[in-house]
Amino acid sequence: MIGSTLRRLLMTVALATGLSGPATAGLTLQGTVSSSDWIAYSDRFVQEDGRVVDDANGGISHSESQGYGLLLAFSAGDRAAFERIWTFTLNELLIRDDGLASWKWDAAAKPHIVDVNNASDGDVLIAYALGLAAEAWGESRYRDAAMSLAVSIGKNLLTDANERVVLRPGAEGFRRSEQDGSLVVNPSYWIFEAFPVLQKLAPDHPWEALASSGAELIGAARFGPANLPADWVAISPAGLAPAPNFPPVYGYNAIRIPLYLLRAGATPGPLLEPFEKAAQTIGPAIIELPSGRALEKLSDPGYRMLDAALACASGTPIPKDLLRFEPTLYYPSTLYLLAMSYVKERQPQCL
């Protein structure tokens, strides 16, 4: 059953682009973030220099926030903001010799880069947004940068594990354990909607195989009574397990997984079923996987919107109190706009 769901998802991701190539898949994203919502978001989190601020994390910026900022600016059709965010990203984060983005930037530190390692979800988001903007706006600078970053991702971050192509969370660390041969991955770093765009930008790398492995991983990484994936998963010859040295939780990382599946075209079925059940029985929460209990309820509208988008895929209207966007903190506000973008594009009947 999961196999047929996987095939439908991969077909959707592969074919949604039409005849002119993968980058056109994102053209419909433009306009799915309203001007008013984007202004409210950017006034709160995007500085004049293009830095996207994670206000719940000490006011730092990171490759994820810059990538999300680029994607949301594109979805709102704000070319000026996109250019500002990209300029900051280019000048401040893209300083590594391998072409990847350093992940953590802190205004209070000197130098501002406090961790030069990359985070692969940030790299994927940046390359994806640049590829979309290049295609939509005919900007060769964006295309050149997107191609360079996509090639760097393919060269440095795609690797084999148990005969599957997987995405390493970073170029440094997360390497195969000498004890059991395991490799640690983060399932929420598989941003499925991006892979057709990266395929067009860097066709020599196995993006389709990466998408397939990600869907298989999410379908197989079902831990504890809730049958949900952990934020961090160890892949070893013995199988899958919550990664050692990380909390065994369905947490702030993994809560994005169903949204990414929905945005890539997944429909209700075995792949989404555990997420739907958790949304219905537990609600938005950080879930301890061994016990299946909620460690922390997530009441922010952005987190509630994730569950609402899942329910919408099965025909349930978005609750009225979630129809109006009011920015709170960076991360849930970002997730809210991404979820609402999905609803506007794919499920407008829920509004």
From TrEMBL:
Annotated catalytic residues: D121
Signal sequence interval, chain numbering: 1-25
Keyword Hydrolase: yes
Any one GO MF annotation of this record: cellulase activity
EC number per UniProt: 3.2.1.-
Pfam families documented for this protein: Glyco_hydro_8
GO terms under biological process: cellulose catabolic process
UniProt keywords, alphabetically: Carbohydrate metabolism, Cellulose degradation, Glycosidase, Hydrolase, Polysaccharide degradation, Signal
Keyword Hydrolase: yes
SUPFAM superfamilies reported for this sequence: Six-hairpin glycosidases
Enzyme's top EC category: hydrolase
Reaction catalysed by this enzyme: Endohydrolysis of (1->4)-beta-D-glucosidic linkages in cellulose, lichenin and cereal beta-D-glucans
Lineage top rank: taxon: Bacteria
Similarity-based family: Belongs to the glycosyl hydrolase 8 (cellulase D) family.
Protein name as annotated: Glucanase
Taxonomic placement: Bacteria, Pseudomonadati, Pseudomonadota, Alphaproteobacteria, Hyphomicrobiales
